[in-house]
Amino acid sequence: MSTVNATNYNQDLTVRVFDRFYEYEANIPVNEYDVVHSFFLANMRSPTAAGNFTVSLFRVAEETKIPALTLLQGFQGQSGVNLTANLAYYLNLIRNRATLLGVGVPVQANFYAARNVIQ
What we know:
Elements: E1 14-19, E2 24-29, H1 30-43, H2 47-64, H3 68-75, H4 81-94, H5 111-115
Antiparallel strand pairs: 1-2
Helix pairs in contact: 1-2, 2-4
């Protein structure tokens, strides 16, 4: 007789995470996904933001080859702006340098390089 608490090892124990905008897709172990998602749910105001941060963390983990739970340990004890700035730092590592996140001041081009640009 089976019970609700018995694990069925014949079933896939992964979560498929995807982002249609960035065309990102990954299969992640359920227990890692639950840990990361519950952390962001506790620290974010909306479930949508928590889901987006969760997907972003797994994307950074895959691109940088750092385990997601190791990255999450770096976020422990942070909330709000500090948490967002820390994740922006990691996302900037995998993005194009022309599209940095969290940079409030526009990058000023060198005068001599800028004057050579034809408008």
